[in-house]
Structures are given as structure tokens and as C-alpha cells.
Automatic annotation (TrEMBL):
Residues 2-205 form the Formyl transferase N-terminal domain. InterPro entries: Formyl_transf_N (IPR002376), Formyl_transf_N_sf (IPR036477), GART (IPR004607), GART_AS (IPR001555). GO terms for biological process: 'de novo' IMP biosynthetic process. It comes from the Eukaryota. Its EC number is 2.1.2.2. Signal peptide: none annotated. Belongs to the GART family. It catalyses: N(1)-(5-phospho-beta-D-ribosyl)glycinamide + (6R)-10-formyltetrahydrofolate = N(2)-formyl-N(1)-(5-phospho-beta-D-ribosyl)glycinamide + (6S)-5,6,7,8-tetrahydrofolate + H(+). GO terms for molecular function: phosphoribosylglycinamide formyltransferase activity. Keywords: Purine biosynthesis, Transferase. This is Phosphoribosylglycinamide formyltransferase.
Amino acid sequence: RRIVVLISGSGSNLQALIDALNTPALPQTRIVLVLSNRKAAYGLTRAQQANPSIPTAYLGLQPYLKANPDRTRYDYDVEVAKIVVKEKPDLIVLAGWMHIMSEGFLDVVCGEKPFDGEEKVQKSIPVINLHPALPGAFDGAHAIERAYEAFQKGEIAHTGAMVHRVVKEVDRGEPVVVQQVEIKEGEPIEAFEERLHKTEWEIIVKGAAKVLDEVAPIQ
Ligand code: GRF
């Protein structure tokens, strides 16, 4: 089965996927492309250093808009989708992808817009996103810090992380895997964050495996 992974940063979740390839957790699966919207994303290095190495691509929003002044963010997202869809993935994983997708991305990935000439995606490709919070809790950026603050104020008893389907409303897709994460009284945010990231590394693999088994089960 073929996965494309989109990243923006360190790629520790990408690394979790790489380490799980062709183990019982993710059998008969390849990552066929890692695309980043940040040139300096260490995740690109992780892909290049994987064995076998994984093809990488970079496309930054600002450079794209500068090079194409008449184009919009929608066009950028279409461009990202075209690069991704050309690899014929069974699953697209947003792992630490720090860019809110406009409809341009899903329009191509769901087959509503052509990606090559008139060629459209025949069957909608599932997209999952990792988000370090529980469904509907802390949508958007800095979810980890916001959960930690809320805990300090006694507003929440715990938090969590989830892998969810990507739909047109941000961080609102149907959850695929949800895992609660405790916050311990008085623990520094670094310790909490480390535990939360470890949870993300587990659920990103579980989430990918679950969706792949739905769309491309191993016979
Ligand atoms: C993770 O907490 C992810 O949920 C968030 O970015 C953090 C770093 O991810 N979006 P990675 O190390 O780049 O995979």
C-alpha cells in the first residue's frame, strides 16, 4: 500500500511511520513521497536517510505566491494536491503539517478537479491528520500549550491526541483514533509534551493502519 506524508517540521511522526513500515503494525506499505511546505523541515532529512530512502518534495506557500503573483492560496493547495496525487497514494497523511488546507486540496484529492490535463482522481483518496488534542477540544494551532494552560486553570482534567479524517472544516473530520493523555499536577510542560508526542507516534501508525485496512486491505 502507498502512503504520501505531508510535513512542516521535525517529522517525529513521519519517523514513527517510517519505523513501522513492513512491521505487523503497517505491513506491505511504502511511503512513496514526503512533501514539506518548509525547506528546512528536518523531516525531509529523515526521509532521505530512511532505508530505502524516500523521495521528497518541497513547495512553500510564499515562494509559490511570489513566483505566481496572480495565483492564490487555493491554487497553491491545488498544486500541493497535484504533486501528491501523481504518486497514486492509497492514503495521504498530514503529520505535523502546519498549513490549513483550503478547498483546493480536497477538490483535487476527492476527484472534483483535474490534476493532470483533464485527468481526475477516480476514487477519493482518504486524508488523515494528526492533532494533539481531543475531538472538538482545542482546534487549530498551539493545542498542546492551550491544553496545558487549561489544566493549570482547572478547566480540564485531561487532554489527548487524535487522528481524524480531513474534511473541509478545519480539525473537524471524523476521528479515526483518539487517545486520552493525562496531565500530572505540577509537572512541567516539557514532561507533559513528551508524553503527548509519544502518544501521537503511536496513534499516527494506528490511524494509518486502520484507514489502509479499509481502503487497501491485505488479501
Ligand atoms: C506534533 O505535535 C504535531 O501534532 C503538530 O506538530 C508537532 C510536531 O510534529 N502538528 P512532527 O515532529 O513534525 O511530526
